[in-house]
Amino acid sequence: MTKVTIENVKAREVFDSRGNPTVEADVILSNGVLGRASVPSGKSTGDNEAVELRDGGDRLGGKGVLKAVNNVNTLINDKLKGADPFNQAHIDQMMIDLDGTPNKAKLGANAILGVSIATVRAAANAEGIPVYRYLGGVDLELPQTFHNVINGGEHADNGIDMQEFLITPIKRTTFRDGFEKIVNVYHQLKKNLEKEGYQTGLGDEGGFAPDLPSSEAAIDELNRAIKDAGYVPGEEIGIAFDAAASSFAQDDGSYLFEGKKRSAEEMGTYYEGLLDKYPAIVSMEDPFGENDWDNFAKFTQKNGNRVQIITDDNVCTNPALFRKAIKKGMANSFLIKLNQIGTVSETMEAIRVARKNGYTTMMSHRSGETEDSFLADFTVAMHAEQLKSGAPARGERLAKYNQLLRIEEELGKESNLAHFPNDVDFD
Ligand code: PGA
Ligand code: ZN
User: Fold this and answer.
1) What is the mean pLDDT of residues 197-217?
2) What are the tens digits of pLDDT across the range 134-152?
3) Average pLDDT for residues 18-27, to the nearest whole number?
4) Is 196 a catalytic residue?
């Protein structure tokens, strides 16, 4: 049998859920098999994220990605032609070496990630197996999902300072069962907001974007909607939030939160108050800004045994930064975003580092997404415990959840279901 190799790599500019240009890459193998992938884009990005190469200039507000597309069509194509598509680590390393910068600034992480994922797809297609099976073998798990049903911060035009208010199905018999519960709460929340006279237009991640008076009011709405839908908060449905505190952190180390300048200590006391008042809160993300490692670590030492504390903007799916955070005792969980680091292999390394050190991981979409559902397969393959991919609304969000429903159906009795927080001990 002749060896299958990469024949051709090419890319095009397509558009994401915010109407911004993004990269779609094709990897075509010598046997004619195609793998295709498109790349998401964040808004509340961390300083240490790999570089998303944009064209600048006048066209499409400077957000065009034709330079990245061209890098795929020329430099990357020349390099990968004839390479083994089943050696993912080698493919990714060749692109990292070709780029030669520490943050993928030359070729663009958007160019590199598009090709990295398209290679996985092409290899899986050539084997005639689904992506989750190609990457995960027989150790597969349907994740605990977190659904951002009220959008604030930089994802919505309302006055809520925190970015995401999420619900998660704790008690569930199947993935589908949990998802149906979330859908019920989502519809209940809409009814409640309408009754109270709030707008129910959607934010970037499919959650409602009502102009609520405060972040606590948003958490209160979730608590109420869970109850009104007939579930017990904290027992059947849990609550989580992503403060994305970098977006209201000030240069002098204080936080401009809800109209008042507050010290990090005051923010800590505020969060502790929320945890005391709403025992249904099982997870929180980025309570402090990305340069505030000391206060983040202090808060974790005090509260890390009662709640999952995720860091996202501080560590940007970067294995080296994960190691630094672990040494410092910052957070007890890491957010994982493929495009923050830029290749599938490095994302896997980051997950490995987290696991070996007892940190939980939550896989994540970006606020700017496409219809690509790779994230769903990747999460199942990595038995990644947790996934956040927005509300059960908007096609680009549903693309991931509907794929998880299909995967559960395909796996049948083989399905394993993550149980958070019950199977995690933070002590
Ligand atoms: P982003 O938001 O995709 O806009 O960065 C997601 C997050 O902060 O978790
Ligand atoms: Zn975040």
Assistant:
1) 97
2) 999 999 999 999 999 999 9
3) 98
4) no
For residue 327, with 0-12 CB atoms within 10 Å meaning exposed, 13-18 middle and 19 or more buried, which class applies? exposed
Residue 420 lies in a domain: no
Q: Which amino acid is at 346?
A: E
Count of residues making up the chain: 427
Name which of 151, 163, 422, 425 is nearest 287 in CA terms: 163
Q: Provide the CATH number for the domain around residue 33.
A: 3.30.390.10
| Claim to verify: residue 64 and residue 119 sit in the same structural domain | yes
pTM exceeds 0.70: yes
> Mind listing the pLDDT tens digit for each residue in 95-107?
999 999 999 999 9
Q: Looking at 7, 205, 346, 349, which residue is catalytic? A: 205
Residue 401 located in a structural domain:
yes
Same-domain status, 250 and 380? yes
Question: Which residues surround ligand 1 with Cβ inside 6 Å?
Answer: 42-45, 242, 244, 312, 335, 364, 366-367
Given 337, 396, 400, 408, which residue is catalytic?
337
Q: Whose CA is nearest to atom 8 of ligand 1?
A: 44
Q: Same structural domain for residues 315 and 379?
A: yes
For residues 210 and 333, membership in a common domain is answered with yes
pLDDT tens-digit profile of 253-292? Answer: 999 999 999 999 999 999 999 999 999 999 999 999 998 9
Backbone phi, psi, residue 409, to 5°: -65, -45
Domain hosting 373: range is 144-414
Cα 242 to ligand 2 centroid, rounded to whole Å: 6
1, part of any domain: no
- Residue nearest atom 1 of ligand 1, based on CA coordinates: 42
| Cα–Cα dist 61/46, whole Å | 22
Tokens of 97: 């070496």
| 205: annotated active-site residue | yes
372 assigned binding-site residue: no
Q: State whether 210 and 161 are in the same domain.
A: yes
- Compute the mean pLDDT over every residue in the chain, rounded to the nearest whole number: 97
CATH code assigned at 210? 3.20.20.120
